[in-house]
Design goal:
This protein is an alpha+beta fold. The chain has 15 helices and twelve strands. The strands form three sheets. Strands 3, 4, 5, 6, 7, 8, 9 and 10 form an eight-stranded mixed sheet that branches. A two-stranded antiparallel ribbon has the order 1-2.
Length: about 450
């Protein structure tokens, strides 16, 4: 840099610093332009694009009830969540105002029958999960933790009294659940958890720490897993918010699923009455009944995310023009979009078949693990292509793709990493000893 340029720049800075405050604020502190004014050539995700990804007409595989649920959830998400999702994602805050609207959809509780729950087919619940994730992955994780983990545990492992007491309000989202298994020292090796439960008169004393627990900072009830100090087996407990000795604090600085309120939970001599011990959880293996459902649901999150990214790119390429033509006119862009579309058709078919295997009682741990690992891997590829297609706007949450790109990363990891899930399937197809397979399945997550 020359001396004259340096002096000139210094003089400019001096002028700025000596400006009256009101003059400086008029220039420097203006709010950001609305994205539709700043970039009028393409429509942001707050006005969500129509669904264009069902190229092979998979809707025909769904029953009329499943189609109706899909339509109902899609309309709600596009109308109520799409306009506000980027703002809450940017602030890493949860949109509590949409919870009552999500509660009216009749999807919380999924396949649970009775107790005010919808009793859906697994396919209907899966399709609903995808439709939520298509617009916002964080909202789908919120519902998955609450429903597929929290509510399902009570339904499968709870007493009749517990089901009657807790499930009806959870089914309408008047109360919210979380599911606390993962600990700071135990992620994939979740069965080795260190939180303890000690029997005392009239109940249990829980001590320990949990991490990455979704919904934990505001949940009304926490389904907590702890090691029985007498039997050394894993037991399950329902812990109510504000219990003495219970602390839940938000994990900051996430780059993905920023709307989800993941927390650190600390339990210091938390008393749980006998009536809130889950009688159906006597060992870690009892959690597999729950994970079998949730792992299928998690497969449908990447499907939904990929659908939303494709829909956004499809519209964007038609609206955005360069060199005098829409981006859709260029074959390089067409090739990427077709690759995305092909991935989604395959992902949907694998997810649908996985539902049918579960519903017929034929699904194995290897089936579920292959679905989770393969679908999430293909979704990563799909979303990366979408990121390329949007160019500079591919790093803005306003156009969905950047947000989806980041949100997919934690989903790629939770409910078993790619490597752990491929290990489970690999051992199953080579018929390695059952004990080894069971050991590998002990995986869970930061949900």
């Amino acid at each position: 840099m020359s001396y004259s340029v340096f002096v000139s720049d210094f003089a400019f800075i001096a002028v700025i610093l000596n400006m009256p405050a009101e003059v400086k604020s008029n220039y420097f502190n203006l709010p950001a332009l609305d994205v539709q004014i700043a970039f009028p050539q393409a429509t942001p995700a707050s006005i969500f694009p129509s669904c264009e990804s069902d190229y092979y007409q998979f809707d025909d595989l769904l029953t009329p009830e499943e189609q109706a649920i899909r339509k109902r959830v899609r309309e709600c998400m596009e109308k109520e969540v799409a306009p506000i999702a980027p703002k809450y994602w940017e602030k890493a805050e949860f949109p509590f105002e949409v919870v009552p609207k999500l509660g009216t959809l009749g999807v919380a509780g999924g396949t649970i029958k009775g107790y005010g729950c919808p009793g859906l087919s697994l396919t209907a619940s899966a399709v609903a999960t995808a439709e939520v994730a298509r617009v916002d992955a964080s909202c789908s994780t919120f519902i998955l933790v609450h429903s597929s983990l929290g509510m399902t545990t009570i339904a499968l492992c709870g007493s009749e009294e517990q089901k009657k007491k807790y499930l009806p309000s959870l089914a309408t989202l008047k109360t919210v659940a979380c599911w606390a298994l993962t600990e700071p020292d135990y992620g994939s090796d979740a069965s080795a958890l260190g939180t303890t439960a000690t029997k005392v008169g009239g109940g249990w004393i829980l001590n320990g720490q949990k991490r990455w627990i979704g919904n934990s900072t505001f949940a009304d009830i926490l389904v907590v897993f702890a090691r029985n100090t007498s039997t050394n087996q894993i037991n399950g407990f329902i812990v109510k918010k504000n219990a003495p000795g219970l602390q839940a604090t938000k994990i900051e600085n996430k780059i993905g699923l920023r709307i989800v309120q993941n927390g650190d939970i600390v339990l210091k001599n938390v008393f749980v009455p006998d009536e809130d011990r889950l009688p159906g959880v006597d060992s870690f293996q009892d959690t597999n009944k729950v994970l079998a459902v949730s792992r299928v649901m998690v497969c449908w999150q990447p499907i939904g995310i990929s659908m939303g990214v494709y829909d956004m790119c499809h519209r964007y390429l038609k609206e955005r023009k360069q060199f005098g033509s829409p981006l859709a006119a260029f074959q390089l862009n067409q090739q990427k979009l077709v690759q995305m579309l092909g991935n989604i058709q395959a992902m949907f078919l694998v997810g649908w078949r996985l539902c049918k295997l579960y519903e017929s009682g034929k699904m194995t741990p290897g089936h579920a693990s292959l679905g989770k690992s393969w679908i999430s891997s293909k979704a990563r590829e799909t979303v990366s292509l979408g990121r390329e297609l949007l160019g500079g706007n591919g790093i803005l949450a306003d156009f969905l793709v950047a947000k989806a790109f980041c949100d997919l990363e934690p989903i790629y990891t939770y409910e078993g990493t790619y490597d752990i899930n491929t290990l489970v399937t690999g051992r199953e197809i080579f018929r390695v000893a059952v004990a080894a397979v069971v050991s590998a399945i002990r995986l869970l997550v930061w949900l």
